[in-house]
Amino acid sequence: MSDSDTPQTAASASEERREFSAEVGRLLDLVVHSLYSDREIFLRELVANAADASDRRRFEALTDADRALPADAKIRIVPDKAARLLTISDDGTGMSRDELVRNLGTIARSGTRAFNQKLSDVKPEDRPSLIGQFGVGFYSAFMVADRVEVVSRRVGEAEAWRWSSEGQGSYTLAPAERDTPGTDIVLHIKSDADDFLEPFRLETIVRKWADHITWPITVQRDGQDIAANEGTALWRKPKSEITEEQLTEFYQHLGHMFDKPWATLHWRAEGALEFIAMLFIPGMRPFEPVESTRESRLRLHVRRMFITDEAELLPPWLRFVQGVVDTEDLPLNVSREMLQSTPVLARIRKAVTNRVLSELRNRAKDAESFATFWENFGAVLKEGLWEDAEHRADVATLARFRSTAADDWTGLADYVARMKPEQEAIYFLVGDNLEALRSSPQLEGFQARGIEVLLLSDSVDSFWPDRLSRFEDKPLRSVTQGLADLSKLPLAEPQEDGADLSDLLPRLKEALGTAVSDVRGTDRLVNSAVVLAASGAGPDLQMQRLMRRAGQSIPSNGPILELNPRHPLVRALAARGAAGEDVSGTAHLLLDLARIQDGESPQEPAAFARRVTETLVANLVSGT
């Protein structure tokens, strides 16, 4: 969202009025009228913003002494019952005029649409969880205020600016006065929000949501600034002194989550490398998809001081893990650029990654609990099979799949344990939809022989099998490329002899030309007449489909069309061919039929419809 391009008529010579976009207006309306069930959350959001601003200034001061914070820097909450004002002040970086416009007059473009969709999908009692998921924390102030003023002065600048809005569709900008850098947020409290002018109520909210924030937070009571938070880094406390409630509250604040963590990892590494880590694996998928960014956002602290959440402390395939890593072994003045080449950080990354993997291995022993984790984050974890050679084997032991032989999730080790003695490979089938995979004709020959097939329907499943290649010395093989193996495996029940296709196959191959690389008979079909196969040398069929969708070039040779010699349709065609009849017109119909069975569209839908119509008419007229 963006403010209008042209400033509106000014309220005074020095004041400028700007319009919110219509989308901002709708978002403000949603916040104000749909989230009343837990309005106290506004204070958490504003205090968190103040803490972030203070952290940023402290970090900037490491390399620029002129930006140093005052000795008594803190976050101050001042209620004024008589004037019906609530002020939240900080000594952070502050904002310039342009930053006020950019940060408070603009919201991410798709925010309202996604926010509105989530709001409609969630029960009213659960709706407070939506704040913080879409970057609308500041706007929660309008739940309790009918007007909000922000007076801010950017550190290093002499000018201060005032941003003001009633949340109705516009805001004003004007010069202001502030003696020191930082920000004051002044809320004109609504008539039905009196409790947010009570100091004790405000202290309770701070203890609930922000007790762990290392910046001192005070609430003014009877003219005195009363400490409202403990201000201790929770991760530095001994485990014995931390309650489950505190862990949950910290996790929820850290990741803007409202569930309980599925797993909590809290440990201190000592010796050659010293650091403390408190990590959380969420118990549910966040509203913001983990696919939206591929970077780990673990927070790096140096001796309690926040440095960055862009240190990539975990690989992308563990980006769902949240938490804090606090080390003594990095200099306080380390820059973000230096972090990327710091050997100490590389060792921390390795240690943290190994610890998370160890935790996952332990928890995988509880199949039911691990299934919950896998359904939430399995698709992300499997990215490690594709991109991380160092940990590929570890991820393979954790990976879980749907299968033709198991109702629940199954692992590769379980599959290998169930393999038939004469079976040489681990077979899999990749597609877009699990239900479509279960009914795919590609499975018929394997099921007829009692061979288990893994069913893979996540996007990454089209890629990683080539990289993993083998598990416990068993090759992984797509069923679309494992056709030669079937002849070595006995059928569970003997099948009748098929038709002689020696005359039919070359005619169909000639009619199809370059549309296929070959036409051949197969014994891997039971109920279907035709099926497509990929050549053993190139990518399997699903990978070829993905490449086409992405506009990438694929191998010039087409798929292989396979015919079931025992199917009535193929028998009839073989008989007509043997009798000298022209069957070439059926070739493209068979190819399109095979494509449809694999979830693809006919190459030429209009031509396919015409051929089907002609076939039906001919059969109806002849009475056959």
UniProtKB/TrEMBL annotation:
Signal peptide: none annotated. CDD domains: HATPase_Hsp90-like (cd16927). Pfam families: HATPase_c_3 (PF13589), HSP90 (PF00183). Keywords: ATP-binding, Chaperone, Cytoplasm, Nucleotide-binding, Stress response. It is found in: Cytoplasm. HAMAP family: HSP90 (MF_00505). Homodimer. PANTHER family: HEAT SHOCK PROTEIN 90 FAMILY MEMBER. Belongs to the heat shock protein 90 family. Molecular chaperone. Has ATPase activity. This is Chaperone protein HtpG. It comes from Rhizosaccharibacter radicis. The gene is htpG.
